[in-house]
Design a protein that fits this description.
8-stranded mixed sheet, globular, binds N-(iminomethyl)-L-glutamic acid, binds fe (iii) ion, Urease, subunit C, domain 1, single chain, 2 domains, TIM Barrel, alpha/beta
């Protein structure tokens, strides 16, 4: 029996925890069979000449291989953009003020409802390609700009279609509780009832979403309203995530932990108590430095406390038209280190091992290990720290999705 593909003369950052930094392995080789890693180790430990071992052999000249990148928090599918609000914020208006005046998320809701499916798809493609060009092989995409049943379903199905059309896996998240739509003005509780009695059962039945998210914040939903969504999602057996503690501490991350959330995201204002609850629940802290940067926030997430408590930290683009018009995960590595004081190794774990965990996919991808999906990035670098060190430079030689070299 021969392997499908064999990569040789590689340096490997396996990103497995607990061993050498970055899970490094020099003089490495990786063999792939049926889209999964079949063998990994030192070249010298291969039994036999490469040509006899695999149908296809790639000698890569000492280049580094990491797990394929995973962007575990995006809002990639939406209509319009919010460049005008960017100007307003620079003139002094805050994100929350713009939201309260009916702009912000609601302005994207209007544009998304007006856009037809073809336009939503067409606008998302270049953003998806930008992520892929930097080695993203799995991306999470949320709804949350429809805020009524059909429009939310449209966003989710466009996201699914992107995953079917491009060599990247799309994981979808239903974010019906993102903002209060105009039809329910003054009746947030009524809207939450609509979310859990109408939208959520639809989403669960059609299988359009892999998880459920909500926005717990003073400008969005209260902890009580959020809790109704999380518990309804659990009743439908859907895993949960939460936009938590971004602009204030409402105890959101603790609430997420109470429902066994895969992740609590943003988490700038998360308290020590919530950090402890996350550690107990195994909830990942997903850090979103793009939103922190674009909103010129100053409150940093409690990275030292997460580290002490053993809360895994993921990093993502939060790609969205308002708080984070970002389509570079490499830039998030840099910002994670410079703005949030992650180490380059933590940053890289944040877009591989811990991002997989934030999507409930830790057993399937996120590290280079036998049995895991053969999603790989091949980099023209001399050390993995370079991925976080350089700004605005893309050293990707190529990515591999399910064992196939990807042409972007
Ligand atoms: O993750 N925080 C809430 N939701 C998005 C922003 C969405 C928007 O402003 O359109 C976020 O930052
Ligand atoms: Fe977000």
């Amino acid at each position: 029996m021969m392997w499908d593909v064999l990569w040789l003369d590689a340096r490997l950052a396996t990103m497995t925890a607990g061993g050498r930094p970055y899970g490094m392995l020099e003089d490495g080789a990786i063999a792939v069979q049926d889209g999964r890693i079949a063998w990994i180790g030192r070249h010298d430990d291969l039994e036999g000449p490469p040509a006899a071992l695999a149908k296809q052999v790639h000698w890569i000249d000492g280049r580094w291989i990491t797990p394929g990148f995973i962007d575990c928090h995006t809002h990639l599918v939406y209509g319009g953009n919010r460049a005008r609000e960017f100007e307003q914020r620079l003139e002094g208006a805050s994100y929350a003020e713009i939201a309260r005046a009916g702009g912000g998320i609601l302005s994207t809701v209007r544009a998304t409802r007006e856009a037809d499916d073809a336009a939503l798809y067409r606008d998302a493609v270049p953003r998806l390609k930008a992520l892929m060009a930097e080695g993203v092989t799995t991306v999470e995409i949320k709804s949350g700009y429809g805020l009524e049943s059909a429009a939310e379903a449209r966003q989710l199905s466009v996201a699914r279609r992107l995953g079917e059309s491009f060599p990247i896996e799309v994981i979808t998240t239903f974010l019906g509780a993102h903002a209060l739509p105009p039809e329910f003005e003054g009746d947030a509780d009524g809207y939450i009832s609509y979310v859990i009695e109408t939208m959520l059962p639809d989403v669960a039945e059609t299988g359009l979403a892999d998880a459920v998210d909500a926005f717990c914040e003073t400008i969005a939903f209260t902890p009580e309203q959020t809790e109704r969504v999380l518990s309804a999602a659990r009743r439908h057996d859907l895993p949960v995530k939460l936009h938590a503690d971004q602009l204030s501490d409402l105890g959101g991350a603790g609430l997420a932990a109470k429902y066994g959330a895969l992740s609590a995201d943003h988490v700038e204002y998360t308290s020590e108590e919530s950090v402890a609850a996350m550690a107990r629940a195994g909830t990942v802290a997903t850090l979103l430095p793009g939103a922190f940067y674009c909103l010129r926030e100053t409150q940093q997430p409690p990275v030292a406390a997460f580290r002490r408590a053993g809360v895994p930290m993921a990093l993502a683009t939060d790609s969205n038209p308002g708080s984070s018009p970002v389509t570079s995960l490499l830039l998030m590595l840099s910002m994670g280190c410079t703005l949030f004081r992650l180490t380059p190794e933590e940053a890289l774990a944040g877009v591989t091992r811990n991002a997989a965990r934030a999507l409930g996919l830790a057993d399937d991808r996120g590290t280079l290990e036998v049995g895991k999906r053969a999603d790989l990035c091949v980099w023209d670098i001399d050390h993995p720290a370079e991925l976080a060190y350089r700004v605005g430079f893309n050293p990707l030689a190529y990515a591999v999705k399910d064992g196939r070299v990807r042409q972007v």
